[in-house]
Design a protein that fits this description.
Blueprint (H helix, E strand, L loop, with lengths): L1 H25 L3 E2 L2 E2 L8 H8 L3 E5 L3 E3 L6 E8 L2 E3 L4 E4 L5 E3 L4 E4 L3 E9 L2 E10 L4 E4 L5 E3 L3 E3 L2 E4 L8 E5 L5 E3 L4 E4 L3 E9 L4 E10 L1
Parallel strand pairs: 4-11, 13-20
Antiparallel strand pairs: 1-2, 3-5, 5-6, 5-9, 7-10, 8-9, 10-11, 12-15, 14-18, 16-19, 17-18, 19-20
Length: about 220
């Protein structure tokens, strides 16, 4: 009798737990407004993309000089983060701008931008490279050294040769709480004080600075 009663109780408990489990599944882990189980939807597309192999390219130099024909830039292909050394085919989208030598190094031909493509084991990876006329000299010629709070001042930069690329230039402010400067060299006064504006050429690794006073 006792064993039969225990069996009945076990069946009833099992049925109750099964009903609770079914309710949780149908209501995405909720009973009423209470979340008992967190059920996250799986994006099949993202899951499949995550496991697909990828081929990427790393170019040693972002910029090459059209004036220096001896300058080269190494190109490396990676499959899922692992370097691939054999069986990779590289090609340039425009050999009038940049070409590849026998060692698969990039060689500049003329100013412009080209896309380098790597092919390996049915995969493709792409990266851009720019060929430029580099800056030889640069200096600020801005005559106004005072900027009013809330006003703008366009920094005037003289570079040689005149055909040199300005893509490699970056402007920075020594204190953005006093003045900010954007990528075009426009300074905006923020608060009274003194600040130094610097322009940096990433290709030649040179810089020039000028001091400004911000007034009300």
């Amino acid at each position: 009798m006792k064993s039969r009663r225990a069996l009945v109780i076990s069946i009833i408990v099992f049925i109750i737990l099964a009903i609770i489990a079914l309710v949780l599944v149908l209501n995405k882990g909720h009973i009423g407004n209470i979340a008992l189980v967190s059920i996250e939807a799986v994006d099949d597309k993202k899951a499949s993309e995550a496991i697909l192999p990828k081929l990427t390219i790393e170019i040693e130099k972002e910029y090459l000089s059209s004036a220096n024909k001896k300058e080269t830039s190494k190109v490396t292909a990676y499959k899922d983060g692992e370097e691939v050394t054999n069986g990779v085919e590289f090609e340039s989208s425009d050999t009038d701008i940049v070409k590849l030598n026998k060692d698969n190094e990039l060689v500049a031909v003329s100013d412009g931008k080209a896309t380098i493509t790597a092919k390996y084991d049915g995969l493709e990876g792409k990266a851009d490279v720019k060929v430029i006329t580099p800056i030889k000299t640069m200096k600020f010629t801005t005559t106004n050294s005072v900027v009013r709070v809330g006003k703008d001042l366009q920094m005037k930069l003289q570079i040689t040769p005149a055909s040199a690329s300005t893509d490699t230039l970056t402007y920075t402010s020594s204190d953005e709480e006093i003045a900010t400067v954007n990528s075009n060299g426009i300074v905006t006064g923020v608060a009274p004080g003194k600040v130094t504006i610097t322009v940096y050429d990433s290709y030649t690794e040179t810089e020039k600075s000028v001091n400004l006073t911000i007034k009300k």
